């Protein structure tokens, strides 16, 4: 496979682009993306190229282009692009000769650097740049560019500014508002989204070096949606021309901004620019790097001693991107399926959060997990409206979520059907309904792992109860079988649309209903005041009756004579097909180069772990024999076209004791974004897969599991790993865990309460600050 990606040897913090190739712009724009959870910037190069996607997003600032489209995160004005003309020739790496090229993301410090030697018409110029989005000051981002003529004097013309002509694949979300130039080369552009009417104000201060540089005239132009300054200078050979851009961004959606009107935001931008003037690029970057250390790396360290250094890099790369994409500052927002790194899925939130990313936050940053689940509570209004619009009761969570009040945000039409030539209808927004139980699952897991009763009482319990009510109203009665079914749905395997009795959906629905029943009884017996409050809101007696009358009559697909759980009513009777020709090249979705979705629906082919995911989430409900038989049946039929699939298979294989298979799946999942496939990440990072790197590490190989409120740790280290060390939070206690092939060591760093856990050999207690050592071999 042709690739330009490089992993510096024995350095678990850096990932590099070794050679510039314009075919691979999208890969590096995504994996080198910068951000801090509030702001995310795709890593387009400083100079522009055909095919680039120069995206910058502010979390939670959705806008709708017109009534026939769904909301999306608008691509805000760009501040990183520059046009550089050296001795009359525009800098373009497709021209001339490029040598000594390197572009590296240091995930430890959050800084992206780039350097190369450019030779054109016999003259050489050394180019160096660096940029970051501050992890200390969420509204601040900065860029520094240094250009040095090597052997002869040079003339430079550099154009930089604030470019509001950005679009979302051609869609412009902003009006052409106010542009101003202030003394000291401070540029300010304000704009407003068309439908959601959110104000954005960007303020940039431009700085220059002076030694060996004679500055010429400066020209600033106010064009349509652009505020651009052109600087000219004569540079002595061997002296760098250094351009620095310090920018701040504010919006009328910001939770930390009191006055939301345009003039107040403009004043805030100028005030921040003035406050930043005494600080150099280096100082601001250093404080940002320290914030990364304080909040992420030192707060909850994870280290992997492995034969291959990419395994240690993978967990750092994953945690970096999780921090970059997660709006930990604001519970009105959640994580997009592509984070803040691309336009894919329009910045919308899916079940990915609850099933694949929430576990990381529950165990490492529970305060962030609480905010992510608070978003689901705040979204109850939209979920209730969706249920009502569909003729159901309670809360039906949307497949894609944006604004907390919006309800369903899934587009109706998608890719072209290769057989019919028509647009494919996206049925997920209509019938992929397991999301409702997934939300309840995530909230329950958070409560069980943290013991956060305040959240449970004020938010979590209401979500659990109203999602249980939805399922009670959603069931379909089959008079012939005298049982309830769930008809016409899509499970996690999105190849099978309009399925009846999808195993994952039915089991999740019954679990959700039972959770609601158990909660009603618990509140009635132990928390009468909360019971009364929720009864006044939700009529708990009626809810209990609705669920009790139906739950035991709900059909659950169970293991057949061969111990195989039918994925749905028809899956096991469909046509068998050899998948080898469609998976050998590693291209995701290659099956659809040959068949359309209707044809694939008639085959025993699975997009992602469906029954396997069910067995993983409810592992205590099924025997190891059943797990093994279903693994043997479904895995050969799975294309892993979804980035969610490999991570589940990794954990499941580790649980089954197949270390070699688990590690193989791990490596494939690890490399979805950071690996050598140069087209895998063009539309943005695979957020759930990134969360899955942590889950594979800690759940799969670390053997950590939280089951019905109980902690279990049974290590499954692959042979290629010598030691895994990490920390987790459990019931307000911080545990330091070290695993080798011979021993498991657990120490309670908080030490204010005893911790009970299950592991090899039985049950154990970690008392106070004592270290528990369990021999594994």
Task: Spell out the CATH superfamily of the domain at 78-272.
Answer: Glycoside hydrolase, family 65, N-terminal domain
Let me know the number of strands: 31
| Rg over C-alpha atoms, rounded to the nearest angstrom | 27 Å
End-to-end C-alpha gap:
41 Å
Shape: globular
The pLDDT mean sits at 95
The chain-level structural class is alpha+beta
**Strand ordering within the main sheet:** 1-2-8-9-10-11-18-15-14-13
How much of the residues is beta strand, in percent? 15-25%
CATH class of the domain at 78-272: Mainly Beta
Q: Catalogue the unreliable spans.
A: none
Tell me the major beta sheet. Answer: 10 strands, antiparallel
Looking at the structure, the CATH topology of the domain at 78-272 is Beta-galactosidase, Chain A, domain 5
The assigned CATH architecture of the domain at 78-272 is: Distorted Sandwich
User: Portion of residues in helices?
Assistant: 25-40%
- Tally the helices: 20
Domain Glycoside hydrolase family 65 C-terminal: 705-766
Domain Glycoside hydrolase family 65 N-terminal: 17-253
Keywords: Glycosyltransferase, Hydrolase, Transferase
Domain Glycoside hydrolase family 65 central catalytic: 317-694
């Amino acid at each position: 496979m042709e690739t330009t990606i490089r992993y510096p040897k024995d350095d678990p913090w850096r990932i590099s682009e070794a050679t510039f190739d314009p075919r691979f712009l999208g890969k590096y724009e995504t994996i080198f993306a910068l951000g801090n959870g509030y702001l995310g910037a795709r890593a387009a190069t400083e100079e522009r190229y055909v095919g680039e996607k120069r995206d910058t997003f502010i979390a939670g600032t959705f806008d709708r282009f017109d009534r026939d489209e769904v909301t999306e995160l608008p691509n805000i004005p760009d501040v990183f692009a520059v046009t550089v003309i050296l001795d009359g020739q525009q800098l373009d790496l497709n021209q001339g000769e490029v040598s000594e090229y390197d572009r590296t993301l240091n995930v430890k410090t959050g800084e992206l650097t780039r350097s190369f030697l450019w030779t054109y018409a016999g003259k050489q110029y050394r180019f160096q740049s660096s940029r970051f989005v501050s992890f200390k000051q969420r509204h601040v981002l900065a860029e520094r560019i240094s250009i040095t003529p090597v052997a002869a004097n040079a003339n430079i013309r550099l154009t930089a500014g604030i470019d509001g002509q950005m679009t979302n694949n051609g869609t412009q979300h902003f009006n052409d508002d106010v542009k101003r130039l202030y003394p000291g080369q401070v540029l300010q552009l304000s704009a407003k989204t068309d439908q959601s009417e959110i104000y954005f104000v960007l303020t940039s201060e431009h700085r220059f070096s002076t030694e060996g540089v004679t500055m010429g005239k400066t020209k600033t132009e106010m064009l349509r949606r652009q505020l651009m300054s052109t600087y000219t200078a004569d540079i002595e050979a061997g002296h760098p021309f250094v351009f620095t851009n310090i920018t701040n961004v504010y919006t009328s959606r910001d939770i930390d901004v009191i006055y939301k009107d345009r003039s107040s935001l403009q004043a805030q931008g100028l005030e921040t620019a003035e406050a930043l003037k005494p600080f150099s690029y280096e100082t601001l970057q250093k404080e940002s790097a320290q914030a990364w250390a304080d909040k992420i790396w030192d707060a909850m360290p994870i280290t992997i001693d492995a034969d291959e250094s990419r395994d240690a890099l993978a967990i750092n790369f994953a945690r970096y991107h999780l921090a970059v994409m997660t709006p930990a500052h604001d519970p009105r927002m959640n994580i997009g399926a592509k984070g803040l790194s691309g336009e894919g899925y329009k910045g919308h939130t899916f079940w990915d959060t609850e099933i694949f990313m929430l576990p990381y936050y529950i165990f490492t940053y529970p305060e962030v997990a609480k905010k992510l689940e608070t978003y689901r509570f705040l979204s109850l209004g939209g979920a209730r409206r969706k249920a009502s619009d569909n003729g159901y009761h309670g809360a039906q969570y949307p497949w894609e979520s944006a604004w907390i009040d919006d309800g369903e945000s899934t587009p109706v039409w998608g890719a072209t059907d290769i057989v019919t030539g028509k647009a494919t209808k996206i049925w997920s927004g209509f019938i992929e309904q397991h999301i409702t139980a997934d939300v309840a699952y995530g909230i329950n897991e958070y409560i069980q792992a943290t013991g956060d009763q305040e959240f449970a009482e004020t938010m979590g319990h209401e979500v659990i109860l109203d999602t249980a009510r939805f399922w009670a109203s959603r069931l379909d009665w089959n008079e012939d079988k005298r049982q309830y079914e769930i008809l016409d749905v899509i499970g996690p395997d999105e190849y099978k649309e309009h399925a009846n009795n999808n195993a994952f959906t039915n089991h999740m629905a019954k679990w959700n209903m039972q959770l609601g029943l158990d909660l009603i009884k618990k509140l009635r017996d132990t928390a009468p005041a909360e019971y009364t409050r929720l009864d006044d809101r939700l009529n708990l007696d009626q809810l209990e009756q609705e669920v009790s009358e139906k739950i035991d009559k709900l059909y659950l697909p169970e293991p057949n004579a061969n111990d195989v759980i039918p994925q749905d009513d028809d899956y096991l009777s469909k046509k068998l097909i050899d998948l080898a020709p469609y998976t050998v090249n590693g291209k995701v979705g290659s099956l659809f180069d040959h068949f359309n979705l209707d044809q694939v629906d008639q085959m025993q082919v699975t997009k992602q772990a469906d029954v396997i995911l069910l067995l993983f989430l409810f592992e205590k409900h099924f025997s190891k024999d059943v797990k093994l038989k279903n693994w043997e049946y479904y895995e050969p039929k799975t294309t892993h076209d979804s980035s969610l699939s490999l991570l589940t298979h990794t954990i499941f294989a580790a649980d089954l004791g197949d270390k070699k298979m688990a590690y193989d799946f791990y490596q494939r999942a690890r490399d979805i974004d950071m690996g050598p496939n140069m087209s895998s990440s063009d539309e943005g990072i695979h957020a759930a897969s990134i969360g899955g790197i942590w889950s594979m590490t800690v759940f799969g190989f670390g053997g950590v599991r939280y089951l019905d409120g109980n902690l279990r740790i049974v290590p499954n280290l692959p042979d290629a790993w010598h030691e895994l060390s990490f920390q987790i939070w459990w019931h307000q206690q911080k545990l330091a865990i070290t695993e080798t092939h011979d021993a498991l060591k657990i120490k309670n760093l908080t030490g204010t309460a005893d911790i009970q856990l299950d592991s090899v050999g039985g049950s154990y207690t970690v008392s106070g600050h004592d270290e528990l050592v369990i021999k594994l071999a």
